[in-house]
Amino acid sequence: MDLVELITNSVSILTNDNDFYISELIIDENNFGNIVVILKSNYGICVRFIKDRGDCWSEIGFLNEWYFLEDVCCAIGINIVPSSTDLEKMITDLSHLIKKNMLLIIKSFDAKNHKKTQAKIKEIARKRAMNMFDLDQ
User: Fold this and answer.
1) 25-35, pLDDT tens digit by residue?
2) Dihedral sign (CA 68, 31, 96, 114)
3) Where are the domains of the chain?
């Protein structure tokens, strides 16, 4: 199985029901095997899986802003599994997590809730940055 098939299979939990579709799949073999997979939905929410220099992470996009999936989950009360350095495992695990919590994620970014959700996410990101530099909060 080639890398494109592997990624396509890994996101299939999100794409099989047409909740999401793959809008971009970039595999850059010249730069450490970097990979970016972007999924878009009809709900205005996007998901991005990234592998950059061996690190893997995922982000949720809304209104042209991207947020770490971990921050989004924390802000809306979803327990998240730790990310993996194995891209296939990370994409598969987080795709299942997103699918399981799809209604809550959509509701968190709807017209009524998105500003409150974004403020919570930004506060979580600020606290993480402060902790990284061991600054008082």
Assistant:
1) 999 877 677 89
2) positive
3) 3-132
